Amino acid sequence: MGQFEFLTYCVTLQKIQTGPLPVYLKIRRRVAKYFGISCISPHDENKICPLAERHLDTPSGTIALPHGYDSMDSNGVINSLFGVPRALIGVIHLGALPGTPSNRKSVAEIADEAVREARVYEAAGFHGLAIENTHDRPYLKSSVGPEIGAAMAVVGSEVRRGVSLPLGIQVLAGANLWAVAIAHACVASFVRVEGFVFAHVADEGLIESSAGALLRYRRAIGADNVRIFADIKKKHSAHAITADVDIVETAKAAEFFQADGVIVSGVSTGQPADASEVGAVSRAVSIPTLIGSGITPDNIGSYSSAAAFIVGSSVKQNGMWANSLEERRVEAVARAFGKLPAA
Q: Are 189 and 168 in contact (CB under 8 A)?
């Protein structure tokens, strides 16, 4: 095997899918640039630097790209949504919605609060937003009532009118079809879903894979433009029933089942993700890896392989998700994000 073919083989083993020809060429150029190849033609194999030659001795079946190289987002999903190669996404925890135990406000009041928070994120330089029904505790499993779908569609529409940032939808707990329906109704750009592949035991009970039904529903209602970002090894959950399937294999399964991105989080809301797991997932799949919890100004630099950061707790008063949004905390995260190396 020639050296250039070896590099292409490395890419294949790392699951950086080639896809259409332009994507394949982009990957080859990135690999060539990393190894110091001045021309990507296979005829220029002799221009590969000694670093690559050392990797030629790696045993078959365990080949890995050198530390520091990963696909991050080979297909440009994040750039297509947010206009940047790496994105900062602010979460708006909606007030308790109609019919839920803690509901005290009208939909109009909840929408006004959401728009105010959206404008704080936009002013600080965030690239996207996500709304979720976090205050609707205790959550229903895998579905919600029509009053929740209607309310979130109204709030999402008001947020879209109030700011220019791309919007995402999450409906707890695991109400993924509802999330796609709401996103389609209010012209949101993406959804965050749980239980996309495999199964886990959450607070609400057993959550099972929804990928097949979800993607068929998305197609049926004409919402193919709504991107799906799937949590893997989701927080607030027990994963004993899939203990023999690690997070990398879960990410690969989500990619195989056509998720547009995967989300890695800590064990609970506000808890940081394992940086080594984030790096491993990012290297294993060509779709973007997002961080789904625990991002702070102090630790964001530990996740340079992530393609996006979903932030919702550290920007609240005292760092608690249920408290009020604090402008200074939002700005601190944005400043820290701005210091990350170029994606």
A: yes
